[in-house]
Amino acid sequence: MMAIAALAFVGCGDDDDNNATNPSSGKPESVAYIITADFSTDLLSVADLTAYYINEKGSVASEAITTTTWTKTVTQKLPCKIGCKIAVALKKANIENTKTYTILCAPDLNATVLDKNGKKLKTKRSSLSIKSSKLAGSKLEDYFSRNKHEVALQCTTNGDFDTTTIDWGI
Predict the structure, then answer these.
(1) Backbone dihedral region of 7: left (phi > 0), alpha (psi from -120 to 50 degrees) or beta?
(2) 3-state SS, residue 95
(3) Which of 43, 51, 52, 75 has its CA 20 to 30 A from that of 88?
(4) Which of 32-36, 103-107, 164-168 has the lowest mean pLDDT?
(5) Distances in Å between the alpha carbon of 120 and those of 10, 51, 112, 160?
(6) Those residues with Cβ within 8 angstroms of residue 125's Cβ, 6 or more apart along the chain or in another chain
(7) 65 to each of 36, 71, 167, how far by Cα in Å?
(8) CA gap 114, 79 in Å, rounded
(9) Is-contact 105 43, C-beta < 8 A?
């Protein structure tokens, strides 16, 4: 039986940017977000990782993570939901119970609300760093069953962010 856990992330914090050469319409139209996540080679050796995120059409999409760095950029019209979830399925045949593994997931998300001209109206950023943990192989299943992280936001028509839930379909 494979253990499934989730690690997820999304943006917070405000920063306004004004540009006189591209005057703002003042009305939020879309949100662009970039997700970047770093993973330890040990994590990749003992688990299959899948990133679930909301794509440009507002639907849940997924990608297998096979490298130590994963990046995704998405732009959606407002209002919309944004977020990401990392599903971890342990590969039990690859796990040695007495071996110590370094488990790392360090995600970062930047979200920018844009007007119809692409002018930045509001920027949100968040980093969720699950510190590097050293765990015996026998402890991995318990660790991932207890450590589930997911962030999902609703971006309103006026460009504000509220917490929400997303049905990832998994």
Answers:
(1) beta
(2) coil
(3) 75
(4) 103-107
(5) 18, 27, 6, 13
(6) 11, 12, 13, 15, 108, 109, 110, 111
(7) 12, 10, 20
(8) 12
(9) yes
Tokens of 166: 């997303």
Residue 35 reports pLDDT greater than 60 = yes
Distance CA 152, CA 131 (A): 21
Strand pairing partners for 134? 102
Dist CA 149 CA 44 (whole Å): 18
Q: Is the pLDDT of residue 102 over 60?
A: yes
| Integer angstrom CA distances of residue 18 from 37, 111, 117, 121 | 29, 16, 12, 8
Read off the amino acid at residue 144: F
* Distances in whole angstroms, Cα of residue 55 to Cα of each of 32, 59, 130: 11, 6, 25
* Interval 116-168: pLDDT, tens: 999 999 988 876 656 678 999 999 999 888 876 677 888 999 999 888 888 99
Residue carrying structure tokens 């045949």: 93
Residue showing tokens 């330890």: 40
Residue 71 near residue 35 (C-beta atoms within 8 A): yes
In this prediction, residue 73 carries a pLDDT of 96
